Structures are given as C-alpha cells and as structure tokens.
Amino acid sequence: MKLLRNTWYAAAWSRDVGADLSTRELLGEPMLLYRKHDGAPVAMIDRCPHRFAPLSMGKRVGDGIECGYHGLQFDCSGACSKNPHGDGRIPPGARVRSFPAEDRHGLVWIWAGEPSRADASLIPDFSHLVSPRLKTVGDEMTQKAHYELVVDNLMDLSHVNYLHAPYQHVDDFLQAKHDVVQDGSALESRRTVAGTRAPQSFRPFLDDPDAPVDYWLNIRWHAPGCCLLETGVVPVGRPREHGLVRIGTHIVTPIGAASTQYLYASSRNYRLDDPDADDETARWQQMGFHEQDKPMIEGVQTRMGERELFSMRPVLLATDAAAIRARRLLAAMIDAEARSDQPVPVAIA
Amino acid sequence: MKLLRNTWYAAAWSRDVGADLSTRELLGEPMLLYRKHDGAPVAMIDRCPHRFAPLSMGKRVGDGIECGYHGLQFDCSGACSKNPHGDGRIPPGARVRSFPAEDRHGLVWIWAGEPSRADASLIPDFSHLVSPRLKTVGDEMTQKAHYELVVDNLMDLSHVNYLHAPYQHVDDFLQAKHDVVQDGSALESRRTVAGTRAPQSFRPFLDDPDAPVDYWLNIRWHAPGCCLLETGVVPVGRPREHGLVRIGTHIVTPIGAASTQYLYASSRNYRLDDPDADDETARWQQMGFHEQDKPMIEGVQTRMGERELFSMRPVLLATDAAAIRARRLLAAMIDAEARSDQPVPVAIA
Amino acid sequence: MKLLRNTWYAAAWSRDVGADLSTRELLGEPMLLYRKHDGAPVAMIDRCPHRFAPLSMGKRVGDGIECGYHGLQFDCSGACSKNPHGDGRIPPGARVRSFPAEDRHGLVWIWAGEPSRADASLIPDFSHLVSPRLKTVGDEMTQKAHYELVVDNLMDLSHVNYLHAPYQHVDDFLQAKHDVVQDGSALESRRTVAGTRAPQSFRPFLDDPDAPVDYWLNIRWHAPGCCLLETGVVPVGRPREHGLVRIGTHIVTPIGAASTQYLYASSRNYRLDDPDADDETARWQQMGFHEQDKPMIEGVQTRMGERELFSMRPVLLATDAAAIRARRLLAAMIDAEARSDQPVPVAIA
C-alpha cells in the first residue's frame, strides 16, 4: 500500500488513548498508543525489536514500557532504557520506531513520515470539535474497504439522495450549483440550493419546518483522509450565520489495503444541551454510516476485489469531479514524495 | 479459472428468481438475477459501471434497475437509461454486461459466451422436471469444491456401494455390464444388473420387495456440468417402461475455483401424490447429498488443495472411465474455444 | 516449509491413538493414525491415491483400511490390497505413503525421512514419562505459530521471570550462572541459583518454604523439536537427588508454516498420589501454557507475519544464546540433509 508519509494521520479520538497501553492496526503497522504521566500521547510500533513480542502485552514502567516476554525496557522515544539480561549492556539497535504524536482538537494525531519534519501546525483544523458554541456527537468504526473508497463516498455527496433517502434527501440537489475549489492541497466541494424544502434531518429543529430555506452543503478534503463537512439551512435570503448548521468530522486512516479506520462526528450549533438532539444525531450516525454507507462501501470493495479503481475504467459523471480530483491530487502527492530527495522511512509496509 | 464460455449454465431454479433483485456468485462473477414484468428472467453483472456498487443494493424501476449509490438507471439489457447528474447525458461506456437468460424446464439458464451465439435450443433437455407423469422433489446446495470434482462424483456412480451404502447399495453392481457412450458433446455411462435384489431405496415401493429385478443406472453428462441420471427396477425380464423409475437432475455451475452451485432433484414415476414418498426423497437427498457426498467431495478438495487432478497423477481404475472421459472432453472443448477465432468475452475472470 | 526429514517426530500421545481411524495435520500433511490389532501404531498419508479422498472417512478392514469413496483397500504398509472394480487388478502405483511409527514412552513417534533409515534407538529419551517414581500430568495444544517460535520460548527460559511471574519467578535468575552445552545434535541450557528463595511453584510442597534453597533449571533440546526441562530445589548445599524435582516434557511437531502441535507434561518426584498436586500442575499448565505462553507466542507470530526471524534482524541478548544456537544447529542439519546424497522423500510438501 503506497501511502502519503509526510503528513498527520488521526490515530484515535483523544478520549480513547489513556495511560494504559493500547494497540490498533494503522498504516499497515501495529501501533502502540498510550499517554505519559504529563498526558502527552505516545505512538510507536507495537513490536519489541528483540523477539518481536507485542509491546502492548507488557506494562508501563514510568513513562516507558517493559516488554512482557523477556523484560527489555524502552523509553517513550522508543530507545531501549534497560536490558535485564547478562551484563545489562544495551545493544546498539535496540530501538522501537516511534512516531511524533500530538493531541489536537480532541484527536490524537501521528506523523507517518520523517520525524524531523513533523510540524504540528500542519495538523488540519478541526477546532470546531472543541468549540463551546457547538455540541459534538461522534464515534468510530472500521470499514472493510480501501480508505480512498471511503473518501470517494464523502467527496461525492450526491449519494445522500439515494443511499440516505429520505432522511437526508434534498430536493433539487443533483442540479444544484456545484463548485469544486482547490486550496493548496485541500479541495472543497460546495453545493447550494436556494429556496428549497428543508431536508428531514433539519425539520424537527426549525420553527416552521415548511418554510422555504436556503440550503448548503460543503465538504472540504485535506489529504490524505480528513474531511470536514458543513451543512446548513437558513430562511430564504438570510445570512448563513443565522442558520442551523452542522459541522461533520469524517477522518479516515488506512488500516490495511482493504480496511479503514473511520472517525466521525457531528457538531451542531443548535439545542446544545438537548439530549434528544444528541440522540437524534447518534441514531442518524448509526443508520447512515453503519447501516447505509458501510454495507455500500464494503460492497464496492467486494465488487472491486484487489483491483485499483482506474484500472477498472469507471464511468465518470459530473458528480465525480471532487472525488476524482482528490484521488489525482493524492496520487500526485504520493508520487512527488517518492521522487523527492527527502528520505521516507521504510519501516511502514 | 478456465471455463467453457459458449454454453448454457443453470443459474437457479426458476422458482427462486422473482421480481425482486437477487444476487449470487456464478462463473466467478457476482450475478444479478430478477424477472421483468412479463416474467422473463434477466441476468447481468451485479456491479454498476460507475463506482462499482452492487446493483442488487438498488431497486427495480420498471423493467430496469436503479443503482442505490448514486442513482444511475439501467434497462434490462444493461444499457444505462438515465443519468440523474449534471446535464443528464449518458456516458458512452455506461453499460452493465448482461447475459442471455432463459426459463426452461423449471430452471433459469444463462449463456456465458458471445451473446449473439446464444441459442435456446442448445439448452440440455431437462423436460422431465416439468412432466405431469413424474413427481419432482429437489433443492440446491453449495459444495466447497471445484465443479469437476462434483461431476466426477456423479460420473462414477460406483461410489453408491460405499458412500451411500446401505441405502443405495446394489448387489453385483461393481461387476455389472458398464458401457460408456459418447453422443456429440454428451457422454453416457450405462450400467445394468439383471436379476438382482432391489436396492433399499426402491423396496418400500415394490409390491414384492424380495422378488428379483432387473436394475439399471444410466447417467448422461452434458458439458460442462449437467447430469441426468436414470435409475430403475423392473421385475426380471419385463420392459423398463413397466418399472419404477427415478430421473435424477444434477446440475453444477461453477461459483469459483473451489466452490460450486449444485442444483439437484429426483423425479419419480410412482406414487405421484404420496407425500410420504416426497418425504422419503427429501430425506435421502439430505442424507446422501448433504451428509455423505458433500463431506467427501469437500474432503477431496481439501486433500487436493489448489492442485489440478492430473498433476497429482491419480491411480485410475476401470470405474473412472466415464468421469475421466468427461474431463478430457471438457478440456478439449475449452481448448478449442480458446483457439477459435470466435472472440470470447473477457469480462469474466 | 523446509523440515528435517531423517528424524522422529512425536505424532500424538499414545493414549490418543486407538483402533479407530483418526487424522491430524502434521509436517504439512494430513496424517492418518490408528493401531493394528496387535497394538502397533500405523501412520500414513490420509489421502487415497485413487481420487484423493481422506482415508479417515473410510473404515478399518482387518489391519488395513477401505476407502469410503470407491472402496479401494490398503494394508497397513500403505500397499493396495484390493481393487473391487472391473477385473480387480491392482494398479502399480496404488500405494499410500506410510511412515515408520513407534510407541515409545507414552508417545507415538513417526519417522519423516527415508524409511530404511528409521532406527528406533534414535528416538529421544523421554522414559521419565513412564517412570514409576514420577507422577506425570500432561495434555496437548495447538499453537498458531511456527514451531521454532515455540522452541525459542522453551530455550530462553528467562521469560519465566516476566511472562510467568509471579508463579514461576526466580530471584536472581537473570544473573544466574548460565551454561549452554552442545552434546552431538542436542543442546542443553543450564542455570543454577545457589541459596535463593524457593519459587512459588515449589513452596506448597516444601517442609519449610522460607528456608533458602539451591535452585536449578536445565533445558535440553533435541533437534528438531523435543525439549526436556528439569527444574528443582534442594536445601542449600544438599545433593540434587534429595530435592523436589519436576521433569517437563515439551515436544513440538510442525503442523504447517504457522501452526504447531505442542505436547506437554510435567513429571514430579513428590506427592505421587496426591490429586491436589495433580490439580496444581494442571492449573499451572492451563495458566502458563494456554493463557500466558500461547497468546505471547501467537502474538510474536502475528507481529512477524510471514517473515523469517533473521531477516527481521532481531536484537540479540545474552539470554538468546541457547535458542539462537538451536536455530543455527537445526538450519545446518536441514542444509546438510538437503546436500547429502541420501535421497529424501519428496512427497511431503
């Protein structure tokens, strides 16, 4: 699996990484995750360089870890700090590959490339997740599909009118104004429908559900797998800041060639303290993501097998513009990285 | 998997294909099956040419279908009939590969080769399945084995004296007169035992179960996987048309390299309206096919792994004559097809 | 999988091989095991040379077997003894590969190499298993790991201080005197700790559990996978024959590339008739082997995937001496065998 290396990937929701050792497969590698006593996240390959035991089967010792098989200790940088055997000398190669890790906006991010190039300011902006003016409900799931198929799903939101109908159906949506705008390595797809019926997912929260609204749906992709979706309705002609708005967080991280970690959330600017609105969101995420998107995306993966998308010569439509452009941008970035003189770590398969 | 292409394969029992979209893996492909409003069967690849979604996750629209992911519509020939996106123009390649399909004798048949060569008169004759003078009981199963291993099982019926004893055991069967006769691309194996004890499977239906009978067992193979088995007993010296006769239907269709769809039925010329005789047949099919043949054939597949039969240099016996000849005939037909200037579709893996 | 061929492998505990046909995967082959009427064990490939049916689905006929598919019979040497078909002539190649098999010390051993070289005196000495002066408790399990990873676990017993702590923890163990001694193709690792605290596993059986003891732990490896572990405690300065001693039997036989049959037992020289001591042993084996070793060894296999140990450049420590030497010895033996002019049977994959 060719991956973009010099970039941040979301490893987990911050709340799911604690002092205890945990492990998850990410980027084709077993990833050990935990926090130091000062709360800083630690990420390293979950494999002892001695006899390749999973370090997650060992235990915490200070801010480091002790392998549970033969007792080698490593500090949180991955360097061996104690060899309990023989003369106790630490062999030169006794080191676990670690990854720069950062907590940001409720997520733990890891840098998959050259550590010296890890720059936390490059982490995409998901600050809405921790905004006091929004209420966020989210969770995670695994999709048994290549991560680009999940991105395709997100970057072509015309599917809401089919796969997610009637709950997310938007009248006149497929003929709506649609702009695809590139912004550096980010890409944004923007659709607006003026003077339409409010979609079902907003109606319970509108004073007059039957009054016509202006509707918008923007999705912003940040390579390789971070999407931020903004959708809103506002009474016709009013400024968007007066509207009901939801910011969707959709972040995919490759697990393997046909397996993807998918972190998702929805942050709303209305009824912040209403548990019924929380429930409504959780119900929709269960239905929309788990019962509708997941079987469809995994069905596509099954139908593609191990073949690559373009090798199958897909019939492309107007609605594919953003998704295809994102794929091509990403492929160009991966190629550029491979050609660059920046050495890219080879440990990741 | 090399398959004979310009031939009819049984896709399903007719009763199992209805107006609703259904899907089954056949010939290494996901096959979408349904019926038009006029009842005619439709078969096409269950994969949208746009983003490769399973069409079976969509819905019927008239005699065609609508993809459940992004809403492309296809008519029952597989041609795209509606693009709901952008300007609605239908892209040139927007077409699903469909297969000529025919209802015949209670089965839905599909033509795996060049569509223009599909000739319904080439469908092998299983008209006994719908004969009012016979009562038919049958079902289907999946064998986790290469389809030729299932054909081998059928074409060497000496196994009834071991695997299916005592219920189907026939005295003097292994030394019985045995002829193997080729008839075009069909092959028939005929065994007769004169003046023997009626096998247990016939005894409950004979006036005098202990009276000696003439017994016969013929099996006719039609490439690549259709077998018709006739077995009967008649009082010694009487013409066969006075006997108790059962016509067995055994039709295998490759699913994948080690997976086979097996449609089976037994049609009897006695006690047509006797539910006890129906039950007797269903019990035997459960025992004989599911509990005896299936574990044995799948055991053979396990013992062979991915190896091809002849590469393992099997020790061949007199009783293998028909099965081996069928294998060689089929191999020659597949080779001839590959060499012919008739272009064979390549979409099937 | 390259295996040492001209050697004995343990196929099963003798008590688990009876008159009935049984089958287990060993050495990459399905192995049919049963006993003749005189009790002698029989081992042959569980695959009929006719149509490759599992012979274990057939039945015993005298000291031989009858294939359950088409009725070929084989004697206990694997030679075809009856062909019920046609003229009954036995085809020249109708032979099942059989293996010299011996009952010895409560185990059934099979010779994987050239049959004429099978010499029962080469079976490693596990006579303690049947000694009247010891009480033995044991069982078997499957490890989803390459057999050398299980040998590594046994040949580096420093892991008891981590993986099996506190029950098997030994004070001062990692700095204990440690000798690795080669004896022909056997290798022994010996550790002694003078004047230490008795480990928890011995304390319930000592008159004064708190009195200091001399402790020893020797493990002897006999290529390719037979280990004999002796551990004991004795009051300081007394001869070992006055001590509490346990002889561990740890015999691994490859099933496949990442699957190993592991036969284990513990034979103690104390409280021979005490069922509580039996229970104590069985509890420890369950905890130590099934709940501690197995997940760790299988975790290592998972982290290694299909890679070979040395190709991953493990960081080696003083404690690895015996295990690495055993690996190198075995590799040299396999290489020597491959280079020898002794023909090695090729039937085993």
- The amount of helix of chain A comes to 10-25%
Strand content of chain A: 25-35%
- CATH topology tier name of the largest domain in chain A: Naphthalene 1,2-dioxygenase Alpha Subunit, Chain A, domain 1
Radius of gyration of chain A: 22 Å
- Oligomeric state, counting identical vs distinct chains: homotrimer
GO molecular function, one term (chains A, B, C): 2 iron, 2 sulfur cluster binding
Protein name (chains A, B, C): Aromatic ring-hydroxylating dioxygenase subunit alpha
InterPro entries (chains A, B, C): Cholesterol_7-desaturase, Rieske_2Fe-2S, Rieske_2Fe-2S_sf, VanA_C_cat
Keywords (chains A, B, C): 2Fe-2S, Dioxygenase, Iron, Iron-sulfur, Metal-binding, Monooxygenase, Oxidoreductase
What does this structure look like?
Chains A, B, C: Keywords: 2Fe-2S, Dioxygenase, Iron, Iron-sulfur, Metal-binding, Monooxygenase, Oxidoreductase. The structure is a homotrimer of 349-residue chains. Chain A is an alpha+beta fold. Chain A has 2 domains: 115 residues, Rieske Iron-sulfur Protein (3-layer Sandwich), CATH 2.102.10; 211 residues, Naphthalene 1,2-dioxygenase Alpha Subunit, Chain A, domain 1 (Alpha-Beta Complex). Chain A contains 3 helices and 18 strands. In chain A, strand 3 and strand 4 form a beta hairpin. In chain A, helix 1 crosses helix 3. At the A-C interface, loops of A face helix 2 of C.
